[in-house]
Amino acid sequence: MRVVFCLWPNAAHLYPLVPLAWALQSAGHEVRVVSHHTLQASTVAVGLPAVSVGSPDMIPMGPGNPYPEERGRLAELTEVLAPTGGERDPWDVFTHFMLPSIWDFSPVEPAEEERFRAVDDLVAFAKDWKPDLVLWDPCFPIGAVAAVASGAAHARLLWGQDYFGWSRNLVRSRRSDAPGITAEEPLAAALAPSARRHGVEVDEDLLLGQWTLDPLPEAMRLPTGVPAVPVRWVPYAGQTPVPEWLRQETGRPRIALSLGLSQRMFLKGGWGHVPALLEALGGLDVDVVATLDATQLDGSDIPSNVRTVDYLPLNQLLPACDAIIHHGGVGTFAAAAALGIPQLITDSDDDHGVTAAAGEGMEASKHVESSITAGYVTSRGAGLRLDHRTQTVEDIRESLRRVLKDPAFHKGAARVRSEILASPAPPAVVSALEELAALHKGTP
Protein backbone atom coordinates (compact mmCIF):
# COMPACT_ATOMS: atom_id res chain seq x y z
CA MET A 1 0.00 0.00 0.00
CA ARG A 2 1.19 3.51 -0.81
CA VAL A 3 0.42 6.09 1.88
CA VAL A 4 0.79 9.86 1.69
CA PHE A 5 0.78 12.12 4.74
CA CYS A 6 -0.14 15.72 3.87
CA LEU A 7 0.54 18.31 6.53
CA TRP A 8 0.87 21.99 7.35
CA PRO A 9 4.58 22.90 7.55
CA ASN A 10 5.29 22.98 11.26
CA ALA A 11 7.19 20.52 13.44
CA ALA A 12 4.21 20.44 15.83
CA HIS A 13 2.18 18.95 12.95
CA LEU A 14 4.97 16.60 11.82
CA TYR A 15 5.98 14.97 15.10
CA PRO A 16 2.56 13.47 16.02
CA LEU A 17 2.45 11.45 12.78
CA VAL A 18 5.98 10.03 13.00
CA PRO A 19 5.14 6.87 15.05
CA LEU A 20 2.26 5.99 12.69
CA ALA A 21 4.39 6.61 9.60
CA TRP A 22 7.12 4.37 11.01
CA ALA A 23 4.54 1.69 11.85
CA LEU A 24 3.28 1.74 8.26
CA GLN A 25 6.83 1.54 6.90
CA SER A 26 7.67 -1.31 9.28
CA ALA A 27 4.62 -3.19 7.99
CA GLY A 28 6.01 -2.96 4.45
CA HIS A 29 4.04 0.02 3.14
CA GLU A 30 5.54 2.88 1.13
CA VAL A 31 5.21 6.28 2.80
CA ARG A 32 5.64 9.85 1.57
CA VAL A 33 5.25 13.05 3.61
CA VAL A 34 4.05 16.01 1.56
CA SER A 35 4.31 19.55 2.82
CA HIS A 36 5.82 22.91 1.96
CA HIS A 37 9.57 23.24 1.36
CA THR A 38 10.08 24.74 4.83
CA LEU A 39 9.41 21.33 6.43
CA GLN A 40 11.63 19.27 4.14
CA ALA A 41 14.72 19.15 6.36
CA SER A 42 12.70 18.29 9.49
CA THR A 43 10.89 15.49 7.64
CA VAL A 44 14.10 13.92 6.39
CA ALA A 45 15.61 14.25 9.88
CA VAL A 46 12.91 11.97 11.33
CA GLY A 47 13.65 9.29 8.75
CA LEU A 48 10.73 9.90 6.39
CA PRO A 49 10.77 10.65 2.64
CA ALA A 50 9.76 14.25 1.93
CA VAL A 51 7.92 15.67 -1.07
CA SER A 52 7.76 19.46 -1.24
CA VAL A 53 4.98 21.46 -2.88
CA GLY A 54 4.23 25.11 -3.45
CA SER A 55 6.55 28.03 -4.06
CA PRO A 56 9.88 27.76 -2.21
CA ASP A 57 9.76 31.54 -1.73
CA MET A 58 6.38 31.52 0.01
CA ILE A 59 6.46 31.96 3.81
CA PRO A 60 3.59 30.17 5.61
CA MET A 61 1.87 32.70 7.87
CA GLY A 62 -0.74 30.68 9.74
CA PRO A 63 -2.77 32.91 12.06
CA GLY A 64 -0.83 35.93 10.88
CA ASN A 65 -2.44 35.79 7.43
CA PRO A 66 -3.73 39.23 6.44
CA TYR A 67 -7.16 38.59 4.93
CA PRO A 68 -9.15 41.69 5.93
CA GLU A 69 -12.13 41.01 3.63
CA GLU A 70 -12.48 37.38 4.75
CA ARG A 71 -11.99 38.34 8.39
CA GLY A 72 -14.83 40.81 7.94
CA ARG A 73 -17.10 38.04 6.68
CA LEU A 74 -16.10 35.85 9.63
CA ALA A 75 -16.86 38.67 12.05
CA GLU A 76 -20.33 39.01 10.53
CA LEU A 77 -20.89 35.26 10.73
CA THR A 78 -19.72 35.18 14.34
CA GLU A 79 -22.23 37.92 15.17
CA VAL A 80 -25.05 35.99 13.46
CA LEU A 81 -24.17 32.67 15.09
CA ALA A 82 -23.65 34.34 18.49
CA PRO A 83 -21.61 31.47 20.01
CA THR A 84 -21.72 31.73 23.78
CA GLY A 85 -20.36 29.89 26.81
CA GLY A 86 -18.63 26.66 25.84
CA GLU A 87 -19.17 27.41 22.13
CA ARG A 88 -17.18 30.60 21.96
CA ASP A 89 -13.78 29.11 22.79
CA PRO A 90 -13.61 26.47 20.01
CA TRP A 91 -15.24 28.87 17.54
CA ASP A 92 -12.56 31.49 18.20
CA VAL A 93 -9.78 28.91 17.90
CA PHE A 94 -11.22 27.75 14.57
CA THR A 95 -11.71 31.21 13.07
CA HIS A 96 -8.60 32.94 14.47
CA PHE A 97 -6.04 30.14 14.09
CA MET A 98 -7.17 27.20 11.98
CA LEU A 99 -8.84 28.93 9.03
CA PRO A 100 -5.95 31.34 8.38
CA SER A 101 -3.60 28.34 8.30
CA ILE A 102 -5.80 26.70 5.65
CA TRP A 103 -5.70 29.91 3.58
CA ASP A 104 -1.93 29.61 3.25
CA PHE A 105 -2.31 26.74 0.79
CA SER A 106 -5.98 26.89 -0.25
CA PRO A 107 -6.42 30.60 -0.90
CA VAL A 108 -9.72 32.40 -0.83
CA GLU A 109 -10.62 33.89 -4.20
CA PRO A 110 -9.72 36.18 -5.78
CA ALA A 111 -6.11 35.05 -5.53
CA GLU A 112 -3.00 35.19 -7.69
CA GLU A 113 -2.31 32.10 -9.79
CA GLU A 114 0.90 31.38 -7.85
CA ARG A 115 -1.11 31.01 -4.64
CA PHE A 116 -2.59 27.75 -6.00
CA ARG A 117 0.80 26.23 -6.74
CA ALA A 118 0.75 23.97 -3.65
CA VAL A 119 -2.54 22.29 -4.54
CA ASP A 120 -1.51 22.02 -8.20
CA ASP A 121 1.81 20.40 -7.25
CA LEU A 122 0.12 18.04 -4.78
CA VAL A 123 -2.53 16.90 -7.26
CA ALA A 124 0.15 16.33 -9.92
CA PHE A 125 2.21 14.27 -7.48
CA ALA A 126 -0.79 12.17 -6.39
CA LYS A 127 -1.82 11.45 -9.98
CA ASP A 128 1.74 10.40 -10.77
CA TRP A 129 2.53 8.33 -7.63
CA LYS A 130 -1.01 6.93 -7.29
CA PRO A 131 -1.33 6.47 -3.51
CA ASP A 132 -3.83 4.05 -2.01
CA LEU A 133 -4.39 6.20 1.07
CA VAL A 134 -3.93 9.89 1.88
CA LEU A 135 -3.86 10.94 5.54
CA TRP A 136 -4.20 14.69 5.76
CA ASP A 137 -3.77 17.39 8.37
CA PRO A 138 -7.05 19.35 8.84
CA CYS A 139 -5.05 22.58 8.34
CA PHE A 140 -3.85 21.20 4.97
CA PRO A 141 -7.12 19.96 3.41
CA ILE A 142 -5.76 20.21 -0.12
CA GLY A 143 -4.62 16.67 0.68
CA ALA A 144 -8.26 15.62 0.35
CA VAL A 145 -8.48 17.34 -3.06
CA ALA A 146 -5.41 15.42 -4.25
CA ALA A 147 -6.82 12.15 -2.89
CA VAL A 148 -10.12 12.49 -4.72
CA ALA A 149 -8.42 13.67 -7.92
CA SER A 150 -6.15 10.59 -7.87
CA GLY A 151 -8.72 8.05 -6.66
CA ALA A 152 -7.12 7.41 -3.26
CA ALA A 153 -8.97 6.73 -0.03
CA HIS A 154 -8.42 9.54 2.45
CA ALA A 155 -8.82 10.40 6.12
CA ARG A 156 -7.97 13.23 8.46
CA LEU A 157 -5.22 12.80 11.03
CA LEU A 158 -6.04 15.03 14.00
CA TRP A 159 -3.43 16.47 16.37
CA GLY A 160 -5.91 18.18 18.68
CA GLN A 161 -9.61 18.80 19.05
CA ASP A 162 -11.77 18.62 15.93
CA TYR A 163 -12.59 22.31 15.61
CA PHE A 164 -13.36 21.75 11.92
CA GLY A 165 -16.17 19.19 12.24
CA TRP A 166 -17.48 20.97 15.32
CA SER A 167 -17.70 24.34 13.54
CA ARG A 168 -19.61 22.82 10.61
CA ASN A 169 -22.11 21.36 13.07
CA LEU A 170 -22.50 24.74 14.75
CA VAL A 171 -23.25 26.54 11.48
CA ARG A 172 -25.69 23.84 10.36
CA SER A 173 -27.53 23.74 13.67
CA ARG A 174 -27.94 27.53 13.69
CA ARG A 175 -29.08 27.47 10.08
CA SER A 176 -31.81 24.93 10.88
CA ASP A 177 -32.90 27.05 13.86
CA ALA A 178 -32.83 30.27 11.85
CA PRO A 179 -33.29 29.61 8.09
CA GLY A 180 -32.52 33.26 7.35
CA ILE A 181 -28.80 32.68 7.89
CA THR A 182 -27.25 32.73 4.41
CA ALA A 183 -23.55 33.09 5.25
CA GLU A 184 -21.33 30.45 3.65
CA GLU A 185 -19.87 27.83 5.96
CA PRO A 186 -16.19 28.87 6.39
CA LEU A 187 -14.51 25.49 5.91
CA ALA A 188 -16.35 24.84 2.65
CA ALA A 189 -15.59 28.38 1.49
CA ALA A 190 -11.89 27.87 2.22
CA LEU A 191 -11.54 24.65 0.24
CA ALA A 192 -13.98 25.33 -2.62
CA PRO A 193 -11.59 27.31 -4.89
CA SER A 194 -8.93 24.57 -4.79
CA ALA A 195 -11.53 21.85 -5.30
CA ARG A 196 -13.17 23.61 -8.27
CA ARG A 197 -9.77 24.12 -9.82
CA HIS A 198 -9.30 20.34 -10.01
CA GLY A 199 -12.87 19.30 -10.76
CA VAL A 200 -13.54 17.90 -7.28
CA GLU A 201 -16.95 18.12 -5.62
CA VAL A 202 -17.12 19.83 -2.24
CA ASP A 203 -18.97 17.34 -0.05
CA GLU A 204 -18.78 16.10 3.53
CA ASP A 205 -16.08 13.53 2.76
CA LEU A 206 -13.87 16.16 1.14
CA LEU A 207 -14.20 18.51 4.11
CA LEU A 208 -13.99 16.01 6.98
CA GLY A 209 -12.43 12.89 5.44
CA GLN A 210 -13.95 9.49 4.77
CA TRP A 211 -12.99 8.81 8.38
CA THR A 212 -10.83 10.47 11.03
CA LEU A 213 -7.87 9.25 13.07
CA ASP A 214 -8.24 10.76 16.55
CA PRO A 215 -5.38 10.58 19.12
CA LEU A 216 -7.18 12.34 21.99
CA PRO A 217 -8.80 10.59 24.94
CA GLU A 218 -12.54 10.52 24.41
CA ALA A 219 -13.16 12.92 27.31
CA MET A 220 -11.13 15.62 25.53
CA ARG A 221 -12.93 15.44 22.19
CA LEU A 222 -15.47 17.91 20.87
CA PRO A 223 -18.83 16.37 19.89
CA THR A 224 -18.92 16.05 16.09
CA GLY A 225 -20.50 12.71 15.15
CA VAL A 226 -17.64 12.16 12.68
CA PRO A 227 -16.58 8.50 12.18
CA ALA A 228 -13.37 8.16 14.18
CA VAL A 229 -10.65 5.56 14.50
CA PRO A 230 -8.80 6.00 17.82
CA VAL A 231 -5.02 5.85 17.74
CA ARG A 232 -2.70 6.33 20.69
CA TRP A 233 -0.68 9.52 20.82
CA VAL A 234 2.91 8.32 21.10
CA PRO A 235 4.98 11.42 21.92
CA TYR A 236 7.86 12.08 19.57
CA ALA A 237 10.18 15.06 19.14
CA GLY A 238 13.33 15.83 17.21
CA GLN A 239 16.22 14.24 19.05
CA THR A 240 19.50 15.62 20.41
CA PRO A 241 22.41 13.95 22.26
CA VAL A 242 21.41 13.17 25.85
CA PRO A 243 23.24 15.63 28.12
CA GLU A 244 25.35 14.07 30.85
CA TRP A 245 23.90 16.32 33.56
CA LEU A 246 20.41 14.93 32.90
CA ARG A 247 21.53 11.49 34.10
CA GLN A 248 22.85 12.81 37.40
CA GLU A 249 20.74 12.57 40.56
CA THR A 250 20.68 15.71 42.71
CA GLY A 251 18.54 14.51 45.59
CA ARG A 252 15.97 17.24 44.92
CA PRO A 253 12.75 17.20 42.88
CA ARG A 254 13.23 18.25 39.27
CA ILE A 255 10.67 20.37 37.42
CA ALA A 256 10.51 20.94 33.67
CA LEU A 257 9.37 24.29 32.28
CA SER A 258 8.38 24.34 28.62
CA LEU A 259 6.31 26.93 26.77
CA GLY A 260 6.17 25.34 23.34
CA LEU A 261 8.13 25.40 20.10
CA SER A 262 5.24 26.69 17.97
CA GLN A 263 4.59 29.56 20.33
CA ARG A 264 8.11 30.91 20.08
CA MET A 265 8.31 30.30 16.32
CA PHE A 266 5.28 32.45 15.54
CA LEU A 267 4.96 34.78 18.53
CA LYS A 268 7.30 37.67 19.23
CA GLY A 269 5.50 38.70 22.41
CA GLY A 270 3.24 37.30 25.07
CA TRP A 271 6.01 36.19 27.45
CA GLY A 272 5.20 38.60 30.26
CA HIS A 273 4.45 35.75 32.68
CA VAL A 274 7.92 34.15 32.39
CA PRO A 275 9.67 36.32 35.05
CA ALA A 276 6.98 35.45 37.64
CA LEU A 277 7.28 31.74 36.86
CA LEU A 278 11.06 31.83 37.24
CA GLU A 279 10.84 33.86 40.46
CA ALA A 280 8.38 31.34 41.91
CA LEU A 281 10.64 28.44 40.99
CA GLY A 282 13.67 30.21 42.42
CA GLY A 283 12.09 30.19 45.87
CA LEU A 284 11.73 26.40 46.01
CA ASP A 285 14.18 23.63 46.95
CA VAL A 286 14.01 22.08 43.48
CA ASP A 287 16.05 21.80 40.32
CA VAL A 288 14.48 23.29 37.20
CA VAL A 289 15.16 22.68 33.53
CA ALA A 290 13.62 25.46 31.42
CA THR A 291 13.53 24.85 27.66
CA LEU A 292 13.25 28.53 26.79
CA ASP A 293 15.01 30.60 24.15
CA ALA A 294 16.41 34.13 24.35
CA THR A 295 13.14 35.77 23.29
CA GLN A 296 11.17 33.97 25.98
CA LEU A 297 13.80 34.79 28.63
CA ASP A 298 14.16 38.44 27.69
CA GLY A 299 13.89 40.60 30.81
CA SER A 300 13.97 37.67 33.25
CA ASP A 301 16.35 37.07 36.13
CA ILE A 302 17.36 33.41 36.07
CA PRO A 303 17.58 31.87 39.57
CA SER A 304 20.57 29.71 40.47
CA ASN A 305 18.45 26.53 40.60
CA VAL A 306 17.20 27.00 37.01
CA ARG A 307 19.11 25.54 34.07
CA THR A 308 18.04 27.00 30.72
CA VAL A 309 18.44 25.09 27.47
CA ASP A 310 17.19 26.26 24.11
CA TYR A 311 15.81 22.82 23.26
CA LEU A 312 15.67 19.38 24.83
CA PRO A 313 13.23 16.69 23.65
CA LEU A 314 10.53 16.08 26.23
CA ASN A 315 10.87 12.31 25.87
CA GLN A 316 14.45 12.74 27.17
CA LEU A 317 13.69 15.38 29.80
CA LEU A 318 10.43 14.26 31.39
CA PRO A 319 11.43 10.78 32.63
CA ALA A 320 13.91 12.60 34.90
CA CYS A 321 11.27 15.05 36.21
CA ASP A 322 8.67 15.04 38.97
CA ALA A 323 6.36 17.61 37.36
CA ILE A 324 6.11 19.94 34.37
CA ILE A 325 4.91 23.51 33.97
CA HIS A 326 3.78 24.20 30.42
CA HIS A 327 1.67 26.35 28.11
CA GLY A 328 -1.13 23.87 27.48
CA GLY A 329 -0.23 22.66 23.99
CA VAL A 330 -1.69 19.23 23.28
CA GLY A 331 1.70 17.83 22.22
CA THR A 332 3.33 18.81 25.51
CA PHE A 333 0.30 17.57 27.43
CA ALA A 334 0.51 14.21 25.64
CA ALA A 335 4.23 13.84 26.37
CA ALA A 336 3.63 14.32 30.10
CA ALA A 337 0.44 12.26 30.10
CA ALA A 338 2.12 9.28 28.44
CA LEU A 339 4.64 9.18 31.30
CA GLY A 340 2.16 9.82 34.11
CA ILE A 341 3.73 13.12 35.19
CA PRO A 342 1.70 15.80 37.04
CA GLN A 343 1.17 18.99 35.05
CA LEU A 344 0.80 22.69 35.88
CA ILE A 345 -0.67 24.57 32.92
CA THR A 346 -0.44 28.32 32.38
CA ASP A 347 -3.87 29.61 31.43
CA SER A 348 -6.08 32.64 31.90
CA ASP A 349 -9.58 33.87 31.17
CA ASP A 350 -8.35 35.98 28.23
CA ASP A 351 -9.48 35.23 24.71
CA HIS A 352 -7.19 33.67 22.10
CA GLY A 353 -6.95 36.69 19.82
CA VAL A 354 -3.74 37.42 17.95
CA THR A 355 -2.93 41.10 18.47
CA ALA A 356 -0.62 41.81 15.53
CA ALA A 357 0.24 40.56 12.06
CA ALA A 358 3.02 37.99 11.84
CA GLY A 359 5.41 40.24 9.98
CA GLU A 360 5.22 42.77 12.81
CA GLY A 361 5.48 40.19 15.58
CA MET A 362 2.36 38.40 16.78
CA GLU A 363 1.29 38.29 20.39
CA ALA A 364 -1.27 36.05 22.06
CA SER A 365 -2.36 36.12 25.67
CA LYS A 366 -2.28 32.32 25.98
CA HIS A 367 -2.01 29.16 23.93
CA VAL A 368 -5.11 28.28 21.95
CA GLU A 369 -5.40 24.89 23.67
CA SER A 370 -4.49 25.86 27.23
CA SER A 371 -8.05 25.97 28.58
CA ILE A 372 -8.83 22.58 27.01
CA THR A 373 -5.80 20.80 28.44
CA ALA A 374 -6.02 22.58 31.80
CA GLY A 375 -9.67 21.59 32.14
CA TYR A 376 -8.94 17.96 31.34
CA VAL A 377 -5.89 17.70 33.60
CA THR A 378 -7.63 19.30 36.59
CA SER A 379 -10.77 17.20 36.09
CA ARG A 380 -8.59 14.09 36.48
CA GLY A 381 -6.76 15.43 39.51
CA ALA A 382 -3.52 15.27 37.52
CA GLY A 383 -2.37 18.83 38.10
CA LEU A 384 -3.34 22.47 38.51
CA ARG A 385 -4.11 25.52 36.40
CA LEU A 386 -1.77 28.48 36.83
CA ASP A 387 -3.61 31.71 36.04
CA HIS A 388 -0.70 33.89 35.07
CA ARG A 389 -2.95 36.95 34.94
CA THR A 390 -4.26 36.83 38.51
CA GLN A 391 -1.95 34.65 40.63
CA THR A 392 0.92 36.16 42.58
CA VAL A 393 4.41 34.68 42.68
CA GLU A 394 3.60 33.14 46.07
CA ASP A 395 0.33 31.69 44.70
CA ILE A 396 2.28 29.99 41.90
CA ARG A 397 4.89 28.76 44.35
CA GLU A 398 2.22 27.25 46.61
CA SER A 399 0.64 25.44 43.63
CA LEU A 400 4.03 23.93 42.85
CA ARG A 401 4.47 22.79 46.43
CA ARG A 402 1.04 21.13 46.38
CA VAL A 403 1.69 19.20 43.20
CA LEU A 404 5.09 17.99 44.40
CA LYS A 405 3.98 16.97 47.91
CA ASP A 406 0.43 15.63 47.50
CA PRO A 407 0.44 12.03 46.20
CA ALA A 408 -3.09 12.55 44.88
CA PHE A 409 -1.66 14.40 41.88
CA HIS A 410 0.51 11.43 40.96
CA LYS A 411 -2.54 9.19 41.18
CA GLY A 412 -4.40 11.58 38.90
CA ALA A 413 -1.49 11.62 36.44
CA ALA A 414 -1.55 7.81 36.42
CA ARG A 415 -5.28 8.01 35.62
CA VAL A 416 -4.58 10.27 32.64
CA ARG A 417 -1.85 7.90 31.45
CA SER A 418 -4.27 4.97 31.55
CA GLU A 419 -6.72 6.91 29.38
CA ILE A 420 -3.99 7.64 26.85
CA LEU A 421 -2.97 3.97 26.80
CA ALA A 422 -6.59 2.87 26.25
CA SER A 423 -6.29 3.76 22.54
CA PRO A 424 -4.49 1.27 20.27
CA ALA A 425 -0.83 1.95 19.52
CA PRO A 426 0.05 2.92 15.93
CA PRO A 427 1.18 -0.60 14.86
CA ALA A 428 -2.20 -1.97 15.99
CA VAL A 429 -4.01 0.52 13.71
CA VAL A 430 -2.20 -0.47 10.51
CA SER A 431 -4.51 -3.37 9.67
CA ALA A 432 -7.57 -1.15 10.13
CA LEU A 433 -6.07 1.40 7.74
CA GLU A 434 -5.41 -1.33 5.19
CA GLU A 435 -9.05 -2.45 5.35
CA LEU A 436 -10.48 1.06 5.23
CA ALA A 437 -8.24 2.07 2.34
CA ALA A 438 -9.39 -0.95 0.33
CA LEU A 439 -13.02 -0.17 1.15
CA HIS A 440 -12.91 3.52 0.24
CA LYS A 441 -10.44 3.67 -2.61
CA GLY A 442 -12.08 5.06 -5.75
CA THR A 443 -11.07 5.94 -9.26
CA PRO A 444 -9.63 9.25 -10.45
In short:
Helix content is 43%, strand content 13%. It is α/β, with parallel strands linked by helices.
Keywords summarizing the entry:
6-stranded parallel sheet; 7-stranded parallel sheet; globular; Rossmann fold; 19 helices; 13% strand; 43% helix; 444 residues; alpha/beta
Rg of Cα set? 22 Å
* Mass-distribution shape: globular
| Estimated helix fraction | 40-55%
| Number of E strands | 13
| Assigned CATH class of the largest domain | Alpha Beta
Q: Count of DSSP helices?
A: 19
Superfamily (CATH H level) name of the largest domain: Glycogen Phosphorylase B
Q: Into how many domains do the coordinates divide?
A: 2
Structural class: alpha/beta
- The CATH topology of the largest domain: Rossmann fold
Regions with little confidence, pLDDT below 50 for 5+ residues = 353-361
Please state the second-level CATH architecture of the largest domain. Answer: 3-Layer(aba) Sandwich
Distance between the termini: 17 Å
Estimate what percentage of residues fall within beta strands: 5-15%
Task: Specify the biggest β-sheet.
Answer: 7 strands, parallel
